[in-house]
From TrEMBL:
Pathway: Nucleotide-sugar biosynthesis; UDP-alpha-D-glucuronate biosynthesis; UDP-alpha-D-glucuronate from UDP-alpha-D-glucose: step 1/1. Pfam families: UDPG_MGDP_dh (PF00984), UDPG_MGDP_dh_C (PF03720), UDPG_MGDP_dh_N (PF03721). The active site is at 259 (nucleophile). It comes from Paenibacillus aquistagni. GO terms for molecular function: NAD binding; UDP-glucose 6-dehydrogenase activity. It catalyses: UDP-alpha-D-glucose + 2 NAD(+) + H2O = UDP-alpha-D-glucuronate + 2 NADH + 3 H(+). The lineage of its organism: Bacteria, Bacillati, Bacillota, Bacilli, Bacillales. PROSITE patterns: PROKAR_LIPOPROTEIN (PS51257). It is an enzyme of class 1 (oxidoreductase). Belongs to the UDP-glucose/GDP-mannose dehydrogenase family. This is UDP-glucose 6-dehydrogenase. NAD(+) binds at residues 31, 36, 87, 122, 154, 262, 326.
Amino acid sequence: MRRLAVIGTGYVGLVTGSCFADIGNQVICCDIDASKIEKLNQGIIPIYEPGLQEMVVNNQAEGRLAFTTNIAEAVKQSDIIYIAVGTPMSPHGEADLTYIYAAAKSIAEAMQDYKIIVIKSTVPVGTGRSVQMLIAEHTPHPFDMVSNPEFLREGSALKDCMSMERAVIGATHSRAADAIEELHAPFRTLVYRTSLESAEMIKYAANAFLATKISFINEIANLCEETGANVAEVSTGMGLDSRIGSQFLQAGIGYGGSCFPKDTEALRFICSKSGVSSRLINAVIETNAKQRYVVLNKLQHALGNMQGRTIAVLGLAFKPNTDDMRYAPSVDLIPELVARGAHVKAYDPIALDEAKKWIQEDILYTQDMYEAVADADACLILTEWDQVKSMDLARLYSLMRQAVIVDGRNCFSLDEMSSHGFYYSSIGRAV
Ligand code: NAD
Ligand code: UGA
């Protein structure tokens, strides 16, 4: 059992803290957002993540997990301090490290003895060393720095953490690496020990590589449409080669979310700062930016004119099983639809409240998918929620004014849609 403090109780901090508590450690999660901590202390989880509510409440009840705004007290009571604050995109694409340095300073000011300080946030190479210098300037006490990047996905975060495929541990001293490796023992995962710098780079390289797979298959999808091939068959056929792998070859409207867009931009910035070519990453970003407008062109093509038309948008979150709206395609596309004169009715099973903070346009939000599609001239599918994929197609057909579906997530088979009589336009497959 170790005593841990986790600074920053967002997606990563809350999941990390809860999972470490669940395997038997004593964990205090801290945040500067007092309302978030107040809610957590009442057992209210500020984000939607399957299974998280139960895990938090159980571990609180068992006395292994606590929440506070008192970072100094949490640091004093802990041996290992995890930094899990945000590293958002700054206007130039660079990772904004303001929160990292603020957290580091508050740790240094509270330290009274030896600590292991672990950066879990995604940070540019060299950040661990700068944080080490900053902390040393503010405390006489000894400490070691560790980079232990996070690889969880939203929507499957608990599973990704509890059954993690690997833990990457980069440390300034082997005693700190030993401690963090030992902390991971209950996860029975593969531990890969590296330098601080390599661990930081692994995180960006891994995300950029996954983003590259997505942009690659989207480019192939666009080519499939022009040549008569079917991208679903192409990606399955490619993925049967174990050197390629079947994952992250799902063509669609491009990647969104809080990480791939920000991390690919940050990597591009690091390249330009280091004088190294970023041609490939530039292309990945550019392909992704264009991909979300592919569905808009398909919709325009199907309807001719959007003025006065009613469009049902199905799915607002950047992916299923989350309410996260950061860099969600819907945030770009709904204003475009409205600007072209369309009336938008939007449905999402979980993200409606969050979506209202991100979409300023005057649109109608519905809790019921069938209410959204009633009398619509077209349906635009932006998130492949199970609710959308299991829609009653006969009922959909009977409710819509025109049976036009533009699907950015390839939720249905072409045969199924044509047998129901829909005009169905998807990604990388013939209409
Ligand atoms: P988030 O925005 O959800 O949460 C960050 C939290 O840190 C907020 O609650 C904020 O109030 C708090 N905070 C900011 N400054 C603080 C300070 N000085 N002291 C205490 N708390 C402070 O962010 P997130 O999505 O959890 O991401 C955190 C980091 O993890 C980022 O670097 C991100 O790239 C990385 N990451 C995220 C994911 C993901 O799926 N969201 C996955 C892997 C890695
Ligand atoms: C991603 C990575 O998968 C995690 O390993 C990483 O820890 C995290 O970023 C991070 O650094 O924050 P996440 O953004 O939660 O996780 O979700 P993903 O499942 O990776 O999806 C990202 C985006 O890519 C979504 O918009 C999704 O729709 C899209 N995607 C994904 C595709 O378009 N095609 C695919 O085949 C896979």
